[in-house]
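Page 47, continued from p. 46.
Same chain as before, 583 aa.
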Amino acid sequence: MLALMTIPFVECAYAKIDPEIVKLEKQLSKVKNNSEKVKLQINIARRYLLTRNAKCDEYCRAAIKLAERNKLDILKADALSVQGDYFYRIKKYSKAASSFLAEYTLRKNHKQIRLRANAAYNLGLCYSKLSYPAGGYKKSKKYLEEALSLAKRLKDKNFEESIAEQLYLMAYNFGKYKDATEYIKNNLQGANADLRHDIKELQDSVIELDSTIVVKDSLISVMLEENAKLDTTIERNRQELTNLTKNQLISLIELDRKEEEIYHKQSEIERRNLTIAIIITVSVSLLLILLLLWRRYAEKKKLNSALTERNKLIAEQNVEINSNLKIINQKNRDITDSLNYAGKIQKSLLRNFANYSSLMSGYFILYLPKDIVSGDFYWGHQVGSKFVFTVGDCTGHSVPGAFMSMLGISLLNQIVGQQHIIKASEILEQMRISVKLNLGQSGDNEEEAKDGMDMAMCVWDMEQGTINYSGAYNPMFWVRAGQLSILNPEKCPVGIHAKELDFTDQYIEVKKGDRIYLFSDGYADQFGGPKFEKFKLARFKKLLADTSHLPVLRQYDKLESAFKDWKQDMVQIDDVCVLGLEI
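Result:
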């Protein structure tokens, strides 16, 4: 394996989705077995871990909860391992340590030595990144040494070397140079022990060779004894020939002498060849031993040199990293201050409905930006006996969405406030023309901006008692006596579109007590609940209808608490804006 504040990542509406995640989520929606559900949630979390996506933590939390309810300790430990890995990669070391500690406890209870060693190793890494009392040298040392002990039980040499190296680096970084030296010494002693073992094996081979030589010497002695017996036989034969004639005897003696000389020469040659073979064998063996010792020495020397160079490089990198962290932290503070100021500017541009509270029986605005600034906006303005109000949902959220919302508010101030256009469809049409003009949208260039906004536009004629509605993707909900009706929009945005439709007007008669709701899609699209699914429009309609009998401020409280209860610890995926108005 192997947090500073950043601007939240804004996913483009056209970003590619991992097909493997889509496949796994589809399987998750169908599977009934709780154990299989947990396994699928863990696999999805692992896919999100590859891109460090926050959904990795969401799926891990869901898997942990389901495993706890069904007492699936092993799967819970697997989910905690992925969660700890995610927090470690995004540098939230305290949360990573918490996850790995819970995993470690489960592995220990179930006697999973290999996985417990991994968990202890990861804990040691996390604590080495934290200061006392959350982490620190003692905690890191404790778990790394336990991981080393378990690795020795497993006889995993590679794992032992990795842990020993990490112990050295951890001690060095904490300034514990004596301990760091001790860890290096122990590691080298282990390597030297291996070297001594190899040398002993070679010495045993030499001893065995010496034994072979002794056996061969024994064979030579036996041959010499046989030669002595042969000499005795020759002497006996020589005595038997004493009765032969002198010339015959001399011939026989000369022949026997030559045969004996030949025999001795052959024996001498054999002994010489044997001696040469033994000398060559011993020489080659000694040469191989020397070569092996020299190679081991060269490797150790190279390793020590590389380790020294690496330590020097790590020290230099630490200095550079600390310097860069200071710069990044300052830039983050500057960016956050700028966004906070931008948020104040955006809020100042939003029309204050309190100025028009006397026109209506009551109202509420549930406004929950995903980030500091928002792509959703609300707006209202009175022109004579008519009150124009709207909710807009711009492309994207955060900074890009905020720019679009400021453009939308500015255009409404011009179209309604200055030009006094007070017909809903005409307002949307003028907005579309102005958005395309301001963003340079012609449809001729594939690289031009495709940004726009979804809107529900209403014009309330207070004298006639009617509301004129026109919509761009966003509908209007109308509730009377607990019954909810829907005015549907045109299926196109305010901005460039492949198939631009004319905006049409719809009219309804309203009376005191009726409620009108305009909203963006952020509320209905929020993921959460026990099954980790969207809130959905049907559930949102029912919530509005069921709470429409409450005073508007009480209904606001119900909507806000229902959203938070649904979302729980999940990440808010979009800006939320709900405008409720009572006639």
